[in-house]
Specification:
18 strands, Double Stranded RNA Binding Domain, five-stranded mixed β-sheet, 2 domains, pyruvate-formate lyase- activating enzyme, alpha/beta, nine-stranded mixed β-sheet, about 500 residues
Length: about 500
């Protein structure tokens, strides 16, 4: 499709509105007059200055469809540019709805953190006005607005636990048994990286120790620890134990509220590894089937079986874990509404403490996209799958506690963490809300330094790939000295 922007440069939001409806379409942006004989889908968004503000218009045409709508925006203050951008995107949204015949549950919201947006609006204008703005200005449906508001209320209780001197620790294990076809994370299969793992664990222990030294020097309070990846349980029990001991010896865990390890791939879970995890004081694990449909599992490159998931879940219960999360994905290739409904029913029969329902995101670097297997025509099924989970999980005693969105999701849906009372994943909330500092260790980890009392963040990036990480530890430790500089400048209030 061709997108013409005339008299303004609101290309980012205009492109995002187009992607809400046509996520796989290549968008060619022009800053010139619209063509007289367009080919294919053409969108023209125009802004003309007037004596009192600006005249905005949007034209969309494809074959026999050719319509234009316009509006006026008055110059009333410093938010004039923002009002023009929102108004132009609204015109574009309404025309695409008319052309394509469907609306978006999230309306004009294209960002990844709608709950954080709602929280800011509540803070600025009050709850009633904020909710009305979601409906009237951002065109969010009643169902999504209610979901967002309910999640906000749950999050606020968890955010209140954090203090100005709080922080969380993230440990990255960027290895997996195989690469799932929907994944675009920087992780390597064990076959590719087996020789790198021993050195990686050794170097990671050193970075953990150095990071702990910085935290102690600054008097920071550790709230949550999260081992993610990749798949941490790709490591052996001995390697996991070495990392747990490094965390225990390097950090003050006396105030720790949550310790999580992703045991995401059932085919990596053993009784020995679970015993090592439990002995370290870890209270929460995540065992992720994504689906319980064998053909769908095979089609997305998950090499484990349904039985292996059940075995892993049972092993975790026998190891003493009373807080288990399971991840599901709506909209997977080869799945349908009936299959997802069966998966959800069987997961609920296991009675996990939390269930995270993701919607498939069609990431450019994933095998699904690279092999041209993405099919956006399944969006109606994906919408129904997500709605089913939003209906069934509350009836089973779960409530939404965190929510985020990704670009190019099938059906433009969301990812929601559902939990029983008291079993919410604190780290998930803190990372999504950007509540406090996150200190990251390992390849691909990003430390996010949060200025207390503000929205200001600074980031420190580790090397992405394990081979870079193994040889570049000194450089990364040097970068981490800026943690001290940051807190010397901003303090902990």
């Amino acid at each position: 499709m061709h997108l013409y922007l005339i008299g303004h440069d609101y290309h980012f939001e205009c492109e995002n509105v187009c992607r809400l409806f046509l996520p796989l379409e290549k968008i060619i942006t022009h800053h010139e007059e619209q063509p007289t004989q367009p080919e294919g889908l053409v969108v023209c968004c125009t802004m003309e200055p007037t004596d009192i503000g600006a005249r905005l218009s949007c034209r969309v045409w494809l074959e026999s469809f050719d319509e234009t709508i316009e509006t006026m925006v008055q110059q009333t203050g410093d938010d004039f540019s923002d009002l023009c951008e929102l108004s132009l995107c609204t015109l574009l949204y309404r025309l695409l709805v008319k052309l394509l015949g469907f609306t978006q549950g999230w309306g004009l919201i294209t960002g990844v953190r709608p709950v954080k947006l709602l929280r800011r609006l509540v803070r600025e204008s009050g709850e009633a006005a904020a909710l009305q703005y979601f409906t009237d200005k951002l065109l969010v449906s009643e169902e999504k607005r209610t979901l967002c508001h309910t999640t906000l209320q749950a999050e606020d209780k968890l955010l209140a636990l954090s203090r100005p001197d709080s922080f969380s620790l993230y440990i990255s294990i960027p290895f997996c048994p195989t690469r799932c076809d929907y994944c675009s994370f920087v992780s390597q299969t064990v076959v590719q990286a087996k020789k790198l793992i021993p050195v990686y664990v050794e170097q990671l222990c050193k970075e953990i120790a150095y990071t702990g030294e910085l935290a102690r020097r600054l008097g920071l309070r550790l709230e949550t620890v999260y081992f993610g990846g990749g798949t941490p349980t790709t490591l052996s029990a001995e390697q996991l134990t070495a990392l747990f001991r490094a965390v225990e010896s390097s950090f003050d865990l006396s105030c720790l509220r949550e310790y999580t390890v992703e045991a995401g791939r059932p085919d990596t879970v053993t009784a020995e590894k679970l015993a090592a995890i439990r002995s370290a004081g870890v209270g929460r694990v995540s065992i992720n089937p994504q689906t319980l449909q064998p053909a769908v599992l095979a089609g997305i490159g998950r090499k484990h079986t349904v039985d292996q998931f059940y075995e892993a879940f049972d092993l975790a219960r026998k190891a003493g874990f009373t807080n288990i999360n399971t991840d599901l994905i709506a909209g997977l290739p080869g799945d349908d509404y009936a299959g997802f409904a069966d998966t959800l029913e069987r997961i609920l029969a296991l009675d996990p403490e939390s269930v995270t329902v993701h919607t498939l995101s069609m990431k450019r670097a994933s095998n699904i996209m690279l092999q041209h297997r993405a099919d956006y025509r399944v969006q109606d099924d994906a919408v129904r799958m997500v709605q089913l989970s939003a209906d069934a999980l509350p009836r089973a005693g779960y409530a939404p506690y965190y929510l985020y969105r990704q670009s190019r999701t099938v059906g433009n849906q969301e990812n929601v963490g559902w939990a029983k009372p008291g079993c919410e994943g604190l780290y998930n909330v803190y990372i999504m809300d950007e509540t406090h500092t996150i200190l990251g260790c390992g390849a691909g980890a990003v430390s996010k330094l949060k200025q207390p009392g503000t929205d200001y963040l600074e980031r420190i990036f580790n090397y992405k790939f394990p081979y870079e990480y193994n040889s570049g530890l000194e450089e990364m430790l040097s970068r981490k000295e800026s943690v001290v500089t940051f807190y010397e400048k901003y303090g902990t209030l």
